[in-house]
């Protein structure tokens, strides 16, 4: 069965958004993956379909209600739905290529997009939501974070990248950042392409790429050097 994402959001019009174009969009049209949205406000309370309320203990902003969010989750993920339940959150586990690969190998995901100050902690616990962060900064809502995560997942799904090598050399595969790329023209603004790349010696090219990947990773992301390798 194809990968299926269900997004719980107050802004369903943000989807598929950028995932409706290019490779992800074509794959969506082909049915290589599926995307559905659920409007959280449909589960709101009262005449005004309230989804949020003031924070217990005081303070600025509003908090998404546990009962409303739970109803939305229960509607999205019925009995027997084994897809992981995720919540986009700056407090979450950092999104990594390894996590993206795990998701892509599964049946899909139910993804809650927060707004306001966040979501009542009780529903995060009660519905077993895994919080996922796309980086150490604060967005105004979880929607763009969900789009980022899904973009990373969808490009790994079978058939989506077509003939393009879903590169074993890519950044983070093997724990390294990627080596530099070059293409024609051979000379541009007085700059040439490293000779080894035009030598036709595939072994030498491999060695150069590995050495460059190591150098760049050491320089830019020493935290990745010695990090556990991701085994395919
Ligand atoms: N008050 C919260 C931030 C709320 S931002 C705090 O300080 O932690 C509103 C919503 O945007 C969050 O509920 C979450 O769904 C989303 N969001 C913001 N930053 C994010 C990030 N780095 N990664 C994933 N989701 C994020």
From TrEMBL:
UniProt-recorded Gene Ontology molecular function terms: tRNA (guanine(37)-N1)-methyltransferase activity
Protein family (similarity comment): Belongs to the RNA methyltransferase TrmD family.
Keywords: Cytoplasm, Methyltransferase, S-adenosyl-L-methionine, Transferase, tRNA processing
Entry annotated with the keyword Transferase: yes
Main EC class the enzyme belongs to: transferase
Residues holding S-adenosyl-L-methionine: 114, 134-139
UniProt main location, coarse: cytoplasm
UniProt-listed GO biological process terms: methylation
Subcellular location: Cytoplasm
Keyword Transit peptide in annotation: no
Region span, Disordered: 208-232
The name this protein goes by in its record: tRNA (guanine-N(1)-)-methyltransferase
tRNA methyltransferase TRMD/TRM10-type domain: residues covered: 4-225
The species this protein was found in: Fulvimarina uroteuthidis
EC number from the UniProt entry: 2.1.1.228
Pfam family, one: tRNA_m1G_MT
């Amino acid at each position: 069965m194809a990968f299926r994402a269900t997004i719980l959001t107050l802004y369903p019009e943000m989807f598929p958004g950028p995932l409706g174009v290019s490779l992800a969009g074509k794959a969506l049209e082909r049915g290589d993956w599926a995307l559905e949205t659920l409007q959280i406000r449909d589960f709101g309370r009262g005449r005004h379909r309230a989804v949020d309320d003031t924070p217990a203990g005081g303070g600025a902003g509003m908090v998404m209600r546990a009962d409303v969010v739970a109803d939305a989750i229960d509607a999205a993920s019925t009995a027997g739905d084994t897809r992981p339940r995720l919540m986009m959150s700056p407090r979450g586990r950092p999104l990594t290529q390894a996590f993206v690969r795990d998701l892509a190998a599964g049946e899909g995901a139910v993804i809650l997009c927060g707004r306001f100050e966040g979501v009542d902690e009780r529903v995060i616990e009660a519905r077993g939501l895994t919080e996922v962060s796309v980086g150490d900064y604060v967005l105004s809502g979880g929607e763009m974070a969900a789009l980022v995560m899904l973009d990373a997942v969808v490009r790994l799904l079978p058939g989506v990248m077509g003939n393009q090598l879903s590169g074993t050399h890519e950044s983070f595969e093997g724990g390294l950042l990627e080596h530099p790329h070059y293409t024609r023209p051979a000379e541009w603004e007085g700059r040439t392409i490293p000779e080894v790349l035009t030598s036709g010696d595939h072994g030498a090219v491999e060695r150069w790429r590995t050495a460059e990947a190591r150098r760049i990773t050491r320089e830019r992301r020493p935290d990745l050097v010695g990090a556990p390798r991701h085994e395919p």
